[in-house]
Design a protein that fits this description.
It is built from eight helices and twelve strands. By secondary structure, it is of the alpha+beta class. The strands form three sheets. It has a five-stranded antiparallel sheet. Strands 3-8-5-6 form a four-stranded antiparallel sheet.
């Protein structure tokens, strides 16, 4: 982890914080506890930021590049729970967990720069600015609802349906039918709860049927109607 010689000014840190949805609308005085105690770091690809089970002393704000959070299964496979990029807070819910431990391992997915927000400073700002707590409650309840739907999806859908849903979600987030898989195929199989061999067979069959085109980790959706039809029985109205 590289400490930058040119320490950011208070105004620079304030400028970064105002780009974060959670802090929007707050003035510099309100954010001063965070500004005074934050640390700026630059990391290289693959560098660890924190480990699962380590005492939690800060929250990570991504400024440039990408950061990923994961857990290792008992078989040694990495299960990716999220990929974060510019002006996103990494696993902020962990700040409020009573065990005060990082629930996952945090790693630089690419070369990146981050701002480490000291835990007590963040809690102080939360206490004095109720709007932040309101925004956090909305975020946490939304995530809880998503996880309920995700568990329902994983336990009632087929491997083919789960893969179709994941690829369509990438289309939606990138607003294009051509994209690069953000995780390895092994990580994807673990994420979808299927065997690697099953994933390979599905992608191979779809490629032969000209539903998708695959080149390394680049995917081109050729027949989105087929994928949408697979996921249709599980779509919710809200």
């Amino acid at each position: 982890m590289i400490f930058v010689k040119n320490i950011p000014t208070e105004q620079q840190i304030f400028g970064w914080l105002t780009q974060v949805e959670l802090f929007q609308g707050l003035d510099k005085e309100a954010l001063m506890p965070i500004i005074e105690n934050a640390s700026y770091k630059e990391l290289i690809k693959g560098e660890m930021i924190s480990y699962e089970g380590k005492p939690l002393s800060c929250c990570v704000l991504v400024l440039t590049g990408e950061v990923e959070v994961y857990r290792s299964t008992y078989l040694g496979e990495e299960k990716i729970f999220g990929i974060f990029n510019h002006y996103q807070l990494v696993a902020i819910a962990a700040i409020f967990m009573p065990h005060n431990r990082f629930p996952m391992t945090i790693r630089a997915k690419t070369d990146c720069s981050v701002l480490l927000i000291e835990k007590q400073s963040l809690l102080q700002v939360c206490k004095t600015n109720p709007i932040i707590m309101q925004r956090l409650l909305i975020r946490f309840s939304t995530k809880l609802y998503e996880q309920i739907n995700n568990i329902d999806w994983l336990t009632s859908s087929s491997s083919e349906q789960r893969l179709a849903s994941y690829l369509l979600s990438l289309c939606s987030s990138s607003n294009t039918y051509q994209f690069i898989l953000p995780i390895s195929r092994g990580q994807l199989a673990t994420k979808l709860g299927i065997r690697y061999e099953t994933l390979s067979r599905l992608m191979s069959n779809w490629r032969k049927q000209k539903i998708i085109q695959v080149e390394n980790n680049r995917i081109n959706i050729l027949n989105d109607s087929y994928l949408k039809e697979l996921t249709l029985p599980f779509q919710r109205s809200f």
